[in-house]
Amino acid sequence: MAAKGRIEVQCPHCGNIQLEPELAKSTYCRKCNGYVPLEKGHRTEPKSEHGFQKPESLRGRQEVSCPQCGNVQLEAESAKSTYCRKCGGYIRLEKGGRSAESLEPARSQSVLRKLAGFLGVQRTVIARCFECTGKREVPKSAASSICPQCGAYIDLQDYKIVGSFSRSVRTRGRLLVTAKGDLCSSRVICESAEIQGLMRGSLICSGDVKIKLQGKLTGSIEAKRVLIDRRAEIEFVRPIRADLVEVDGSISARIISNGRVVIRKTGRLTGAVFARGFMVEKGGEFFGELSIGSVEMTQGELLDTGSHPHDSPRKPDPGADFSLASA
Predict the structure, then answer these.
(1) Model-level pTM greater than 0.85?
(2) Which positions ≥6 away from 46 have C-beta within 8 Å?
(3) For a disulfide at 248, which of 230, 260, 307, 313, Cβ 3.0-4.6 Å?
(4) Where exactly are the structural domains of the chain?
């Protein structure tokens, strides 16, 4: 007997029976990892043809067999390609048919691909999942992928903002905000970004963020590396959080870094810096508060942009990396 609030579901591929919540609309078989759409309100019953019933929700879908491991899964009839949910192999679907064949780049390499491999040109990228630690190597031209561990969708598209944009974005591609663009999304996650226009949202980047802007930036930035262009003149309203910040232009900001802050010979930084390391090249300028060592701060310290005359000055940690270029 099924537990209260749960129903018995029978896999249409291997016949395995498992328990699922009554409100579930679909699931994966725990035996063969096949996709199992659930009928609303009752369990799937057997059918005489294959031994299992084919629900109405399966209309418009076809069974696809992986040529590498033999796993059978359901895909849309209009699909042109997919990935095996068992071994992660790429499957190219035949038009109008139920069979499929594997795409094997090693056997079908063209002369250009061989030449690119000889020259060391990268034709693939690593798509990392947003939900877990799964990752997959995909062609550089791929627009999306599926996580081999949890099956989550991974967007790989590049986004170019040319006007007002307020939707959330989560991609492993590149984000470009043009000079006429206005990004006001509450949350944007990307692999790399370049900011030339307005940004009033929250940007989280796992790679580099390059900023070419003259004016005020009210959005927040959290990235691996932040590069301030030589022609930039920016006032940051919210703190910059990055492992490495390189300043080639003129900025006014509070910087929180777990790594280093580097002011190049054409750079000028006004504000507060909390970092593990700090370096100013010959010709670079810095005006403000500097704390070398611990970068952990309370919310009050983040909001307090001014110094109190009655407070004793904080002593920086002398053991961290700090250097000035020789005159």
Answers:
(1) no
(2) 10, 52, 53
(3) 230
(4) 1-54, 60-103, 115-155, 160-324
